[in-house]
Specification:
The protein has 15 helices and twelve strands. The chain has 397 residues and is α/β, with parallel strands linked by helices. The protein folds into two domains: 252 residues, Queuine tRNA-ribosyltransferase-like (TIM Barrel, Alpha-Beta Barrel), CATH 3.20.20; 127 residues, no CATH class. The strands form two sheets. Strands 1, 2, 3, 4, 5, 6, 7, 8, 9 and 10 form a ten-stranded parallel beta sheet that branches. Strands 11-12 form a two-stranded antiparallel sheet. β6, α6 and β7 form a beta-alpha-beta unit. α6 packs parallel to α7 and α13 crosses α14. The longest helix has 24 residues.
Length: 397
């Protein structure tokens, strides 16, 4: 059970601080946000300065099918091809070339896993899914030549695909035939706005998907862009989850790599383990403090203790870097507690106990007159709990 940083724009010294403070155990690097020479320098320095850190590069080949694409530095990388259609991906020789070039770039760098090229798909039965499987097959065959760096097959799956359990199980039957170390999974969310909400049946089947690959088949399953939802996913058997500092690095929306115009800076948030949510610093956390209930909502990390001592002063220093380290520390604290449990049932018990307590605290805060915007509210708690319960019933856990 590991937490990785999901690297992206605006890294400053956040990764180094997270690794030095044991808030994270690895990094998934983003070529889109670094020129090749800078990315190569970064991964080399991280390997030198933090030899125990697990380093991965997400090649982001899946951006190739987005037209037009906000692909940043990706065109500078030798394996990347922009504006690809299915027609471009039909010839087997093209798939072979893309798969090999993607791995060749990574294998000369000090990374702990190789991540394969893939394309996104919306359903386990659509043609793009078959293309993704073909790229996986080409990558698996080529990676056997380089056993020093184990291969994770990349999958970028729309969340709506997890509504259909039967096709998901057929897909699992196919991918569990691959002789690889594991999978790097990104779930595309349909909601463009950051929140912890998710449909109950989607969560149930994501947990099933993770459990079958991780616990039952001993694959290392790494989920990118997962945020707090990574906690039940890790309880179900994931090897690692990853999140970053901006909201766009904590969930993966289908428009992430599409050009956008305008937009505003996201408002600062505070990750509250007692609420199992990231609430707005102003007005939500400040309202909790005004009502004299701040200590009930604090996560009690080494980073946030000063909020209880002098909220007004501490809040002025709640920078993005501080908030990021606090967020990672919160997730790591729950992972450490789950590790002590041992099996899947014990780990899920930890999450469901936290959900129950969070629901009770939300009720107390709401009764005292504190209001939360829809995306900071408690609706995700019931979604998570029902999804987990349904998964446990299906798997008899």
């Amino acid at each position: 059970m590991n937490l990785f940083a999901q690297h992206g724009y605006g890294k400053t010294d956040k990764i180094e601080a997270g690794l030095a403070g044991d808030a994270i155990e690895g990094v998934i690097l983003s070529p889109k946000d670094e020129k090749p020479e800078d990315l190569e320098k970064l991964v080399t320095e991280l390997d030198r300065d933090f030899p125990k850190a697990q380093l991965l590069i997400d090649p982001q080949f899946y951006v190739s099918t987005t037209v037009p694409a906000k692909d940043g530095n990706l065109p500078l990388y030798p394996y990347y091809r922009g504006s690809l259609s299915r027609k471009d991906l039909l010839p087997a020789r093209h798939l072979t070339k893309f798969a090999r070039q993607t791995l060749d770039y990574q294998r000369r760098l000090p990374v702990d896993f190789l991540l394969s090229a893939t394309v996104p798909f919306d359903d386990f039965t659509d043609p793009w899914c078959q293309t993704a499987l073909s790229l996986a097959q080409e990558s698996a065959e080529y990676a056997h030549k380089f056993p020093r760096q184990p291969l994770l097959l990349s999958l970028v799956i729309d969340e709506t695909a997890f509504r259909h359990a039967s096709s998901m199980k057929e897909f699992l039957d196919m991918v569990t035939l691959f002789d690889v170390a594991g999978f790097y999974v990104i779930v595309k969310r349909r909601d463009a706005y950051y929140s912890q909400q998710i449909e109950t049946n989607i969560l149930e089947n994501m947990l099933y998907f993770t459990h079958v690959l991780g616990d039952l088949n001993d694959y290392k399953v790494v989920f990118g862009y997962t945020d707090l939802i990574g906690l039940p996913i890790q309880a179900a058997g994931a090897y690692a989850t990853a999140c970053g500092w901006y909201q766009s690095q904590r969930f993966f929306h289908s428009d992430k790599f599409k050009p956008i115009h305008g937009g505003r800076k996201p408002r600062p948030r505070y990750t509250s383990l007692p609420l199992m949510n990231s609430v707005l610093f102003v007005p939500e956390l400040s309202a909790i403090q005004t009502k004299g209930k701040l200590e009930r909502a604090l996560s009690d990390t080494e980073i946030d203790h000063h909020l209880a001592e002098d909220f007004s002063e501490a809040s002025t220093h709640w920078s993005l870097g501080v908030a990021t380290l606090h967020h990672w520390s919160c997730i790591r604290r729950v992972l450490a507690k789950m590790k002590r449990g041992g099996n899947t049932s014990d780990r899920l018990d930890v999450i469901q106990t936290m959900i129950s307590r969070a629901g009770a605290l939300y009720d107390q805060l709401l009764e005292s007159g504190i209001t939360f915007e829809y995306r900071s509210g408690n609706s995700h708690l019931a979604q998570w709990n029902i999804g987990i319960e349904n998964f446990r019933t299906t798997m008899r856990i």
